[in-house]
Amino acid sequence: MKDNIESMEKLINAFTYLPGVGRKTAERYAYSIIGLNDDEVGFFADSLLEVKNKIKLCSVCGNFTDENECEICRTRKSDTICVVKEPKDIMAIEKARNYNGLYHVLHGTINPLEGKGPNDIRIKELVSRVGGGQIKEVIVATNPDVEGEVTASYIAQILKPLNVKVTRIAQGISMGSALQYADEVTLSKAIADRKEM
């Protein structure tokens, strides 16, 4: 019985590596795995290994892909690049279905507290892409937190000499929320980013 307990503990600990998965959720996942038949467990394990072995970074934008270039870089022709922190941000923007340009994934933000500077994220690659002269606008879509704002300001500063328009996604009150519950920074941004009607 000791081996079963140790193996169960090992599986629970493995699930806690996932973001947002605490001990109780990890235990639920582990018990779910035990309830699967051998074929289902094999498929699950093979899927994990396959994604880990096949997925790599796009050589152009840094998005996840299983080829040298991601589908967006291969198929879209655009003079606009949207800069995001991580690949999952691309999926969020794509779901909105109103942006048809290119992307550039930084794989992080400038964060001095964690020892991350401009050289630790993919800013050099962005400058290289913009320096080619075909890009007319760079939209910075980093998170509206301190690190995202610092990164956005740095990108704007470094790209200005390249004669490219640098814009920041609008920030403010989200649809369906009440003004009374908005914090001061969000409300201030909403007023500053107002548009003519």
For the sheet with most strands, the description reads: 4 strands, parallel
Helix content: 40-55%
Q: Counting H and I runs of at least 4 residues, what is the number of helices? A: 8
N- and C-termini, Cα separation: 70 Å
Tell me, briefly, the overall form.
globular
**Class by alpha and beta content:** alpha/beta
- CATH classification class of the largest domain: Alpha Beta
CATH topology of the largest domain: Dna Topoisomerase Vi A Subunit, Chain: A, domain 2
Q: Poorly predicted ranges (pLDDT <50, ≥5 residues)?
A: none
**Beta content:** 5-15%
What would the average pLDDT be, to the nearest integer?
90
- The string of secondary-structure elements, in order, is HHHEEHEHEHEHEH
Total number of strands: 6
Compact overview of the structure:
It contains 8 helices and 6 strands; from the N terminus they run αααββαβαβαβαβα. It has 197 residues and is α/β, with parallel strands linked by helices. Helix 1 (2-15) packs across helix 2 (23-35).
Write a structural description.
This protein is an alpha/beta fold and 197 residues long. The protein is 46% helix and 11% strand. It folds into two domains: 2-54, RecR Domain 1 (Helicase, Ruva Protein, domain 3, Orthogonal Bundle); 72-168, Dna Topoisomerase Vi A Subunit, Chain: A, domain 2, CATH 3.40.1360. It has helices spanning 2-15, 23-35, 38-54, 71-75, 87-96, 123-131, 146-159, 184-192, and strands at 56-57, 64-65, 80-84, 102-105, 137-140, 165-168. It has a four-stranded parallel β-sheet with strand order 4-3-5-6. A two-stranded antiparallel sheet has the order 1-2. The longest helix is centred in the N-terminal third of the chain and has 17 residues, at 38-54. The termini are far apart. The mean pLDDT is 90.
